[in-house]
Each structure stands twice: as structure tokens, then as C-alpha cells.
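User: Study the fold:
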Amino acid sequence: MSEDTLEPDELAKTGPADKSEGDAVIADEERLRGDIVRLTADLENLKKDVFTQSTESARHAMEHAVRTVAPALDALFAAARAMENGSMDEELTQWREGLKKVQDRFEQSFVELGIVPVPVDGTYDPKYHEAVERVSGEEHQIVAVVAIGWMWKDSDAVIVPARVHVGSGE
């Protein structure tokens, strides 16, 4: 009986017509499986890269927003400080309380975005602070805050350094 007259089930049992053809099929299958594994790994790496890049882009955009908004917030803090030195009539007190609420809301918004104020208690550190003036006081200690600094909550990366007066040791 020739291969032409075999039933399909019988043909499947007999296998390929020659051994080299079977080896070629197996080699092709192994090559295709390897290609699938490599492509899957490439896809996973691409997903990770895209996630990393999008996270970094969002972070840079947020830093830009903070740098843009920080001067307005600094002006609010300066206005509140100026009011503290004024008289204590009722209207001034209401204005001061209103400004304080706006300040608190700005700060709360930044915290919700993962951004916190730079600590300004203690020793001057150029990594976190910008010394705008040396004044009498304990050497290398922060004496006064001119402008609040902002940094990422989850790292020590500073977005805007705190502007401070630093003691000169006099």
C-alpha cells in the first residue's frame, strides 16, 4: 500500500516520509519557541521601560509645578509674617486666619502629591538649604526661614531648597 492510499489516521501513525524532514520540523518548533520566549521577555522589558519613563516624566512635571507655585506660596507666608507684626484688631486677625488657611491648604495639596517641606530646624545643610544671609546666632544653625523648601516625601531629593538665614557664630 502506498502513502497515497493510506487513511489519514494511518498516515499520522507512519510519521514523516523521511527522518531529516522530522528533524527540520522539530528544529523549527524549537526555534519558534525560543523566539516566543525572547519576544515575551522583550515585551516585559518594554513595559518596565515605559512605566519608568512615564513615572520620571510625571515626576519632572510635578517638580516644575512646585517650582512654579512655590513663589506664590512664599508670598502668602511673607504676608502672614508681616501681619503677625501688625495690630491685633479683629479684621487683621480674620485676614491672618484666612491666609493661614490658604497656606495650610497649599501645604496639604503638596503633601497629597508626595511633596513635603524641607526640614529647617537645626543645622544648615547646603543639600537642603540655600543660605541667603549670615546673621548673628549660633554658627551653622538656621536662625530664620525666608522661604519654605520642598522635597519628595519618598526620597531626600530636593525640588526647591529652603531659603534661610544662618548663624555666623557671633
